[in-house]
Specification:
alpha/beta, Peroxisomal Thiolase, Chain A, domain 1, 2 domains, five-stranded mixed beta sheet, four-stranded mixed beta sheet, 10 helices
């Protein structure tokens, strides 16, 4: 009986806008201050895509181009493109189709996945299954969001949290036992109203009234989201470790979604992982939604070694949450 095919990451890429919005700039927009933001979230600054002509597909395309360059392959070798996003350029076509066009991946198909901050993990497991089945050899998985496009910069409960960015990975079949070992994923729609953008869909189509009522901005019940996120991320990260008989000593790195430093700390404690093993870049980028985890992988790529045990964990709107156990492959 042949061994199971694993999907492993063979290249990473990213894109971050040049413009840096600091907490000091936030102080000029809303009633807040650097100390308040930093102590409650860990965020010091975030990147903003200022050019109104550029959207999520631009950032995702730039990340894809870096992945191809790093791997030394042409776009024509890509079989599939999966983009995780809640801020697509349009309802349709999908961001993945725009990326496919812009990089010239003439043999690839693609689609988007909408799972908010858990989107990259959901997309990663989907891409992995295409590799595991033996049907495809090269799958691009990208997380990208232009969160500034759905932020109300008069709402201090949300506008301080988010930034723009994109990052992703190339998945290929593993021949050395490294790759994505397992994943756990959950949804709970009873939390839908706690983190939501109500306008623009079929429930509240775009109208003068929907715009006047600010339905096209993200809103959240911060306390409810924080409580559920802290429990969800910590529990599911611990669950996948227990399933594979892993202890904190076995883990090289925790790669957590970058929503709030206190949530990250709670997850690390639950896993028994010291802070020195936790990827944290929230101070520089804020919450880039689907892009946070791959941005961490990009920022730490030079410190990662083949065979390193990584636990990826995220929680997002929906509610959605999940964890992934991966042995690093490059």
């Amino acid at each position: 009986m042949s061994e199971k095919i694993l999907a492993k990451v063979t290249a990473v890429g990213h894109y971050l806008p040049d413009y840096i919005m600091t907490n000091q700039e936030m102080e000029k927009l809303v009633d807040t201050n650097d100390e308040w933001i930093t102590s409650r979230t860990g965020i010091k600054e975030r990147r903003i895509l200022k050019d109104p002509e550029k959207a999520t597909s631009y950032m995702a395309t730039k990340a894809a181009e870096e992945i191809l360059k790093t791997r030394g392959i042409s776009a024509s070798e890509i079989d599939a493109i999966i983009v995780a996003t809640v801020t697509p350029d349009y309802f349709f076509p999908a961001v993945a189709c725009l990326v496919q066009r812009d990089i010239g991946a003439d043999k690839a198909f693609g689609y988007d996945i909408s799972a908010a901050c858990s989107g990259f993990l959901f997309a990663l497991s989907t891409g992995a299954q295409f590799i595991e089945s033996g049907r495809y050899k090269k799958v691009l998985v990208i997380g990208a969001d232009k969160m500034s496009s759905i932020l109300d910069y008069t709402d201090r409960t949300t506008c301080i949290l988010f930034g723009d960015g994109a990052a992703g990975v190339l998945l290929e079949p593993s021949d050395d036992g490294n790759g994505i070992i397992d994943y756990l994923q959950r949804s709970d729609g009873t939390g839908a109203d706690f983190l939501i953008m109500k306008g623009g869909g079929s429930r509240h189509p775009s109208t003068h009234k929907s715009i006047d009522d600010k339905l096209h901005y993200i809103t959240q019940d911060g306390k409810s989201v924080f409580k559920k996120a802290t429990e969800g991320m910590a529990d599911i990260a611990a669950e996948i470790m227990q399933k594979h008989n892993l202890t904190g000593d076995d883990i090289a790195w925790l790669v957590p979604h970058q929503a709030n430093l206190r949530i990250i700390d709670a997850t690390a404690r639950r896993m028994g992982v010291g802070k020195e093993k936790v990827m944290i870049n929230i101070s520089k980028y804020g919450n880039t939604t689907a892009a946070t985890i791959p941005l961490c992988l990009y920022d730490w790529k030079d410190q990662l070694k083949p065979g390193d045990n990584l636990i990826l964990a995220a929680f997002g709107g929906g509610f959605t949450w999940g964890s992934t156990y991966m042995k690093w492959g490059i």
